[in-house]
Amino acid sequence: MQSKVSVKICGITNTEDMDATIRYGTHYAGLMFFEKSPRFIDLNLARKLSLHAGNKIKKVAVTVNLNNQSLDEIVNKVPLDFIQLHGEENPKRVREIKVRYDLPVIKAIGISEADDLDLISHFENAADQLLIDAKSPASSILPGGNGLNFDWKLLKDFQFSCPWLLAGGLNSENAAEAIAITGATQLDLSSGVEKAPGLKDEDKISLLMSSI
Length: 212
Hints:
The protein is of the alpha/beta class and 212 residues long. It contains 7 helices and 10 strands.
């Protein structure tokens, strides 16, 4: 049954997990192209997973500060619906990637305090969607997927001018609360629906989808 909230499950690494995300009505599947992530997959596996999913779900390439050569390799090999930029890409770079690949772009923004919300206005006219995540701690090698959340009240009554997804430490136990506070209509999860890094837990996906 399709939830009224669109869900992105990020870091799909095998066909079983791809099938589970589709079975429970999620909207997006994230394929991780950041080599330091435990959810990283190579181009051949990414292509296999994307072709396996077909048009049953939106496939998102999750990238971090990649140059055009690397992005060319991904886009030419893997059928995609979105490119997600989870690095330090500026608005100019976001626009360049949109034009070069003719694919909608999701730009991730890390939030830890109210001043960080100023970044949203810089990217709203550059990206097709924004992903609002918890800012990674300085000690982390990962730009996201750390299982951390931020104070959702920072987004209470905040008015976005483009579609956006809420990320950061979400799971079946707190997703409904996060939606109630922020008004989010799209969620992004990774570790919150896993049994181990890169291995999804079908029961957790089911619980999540029934909770929202």
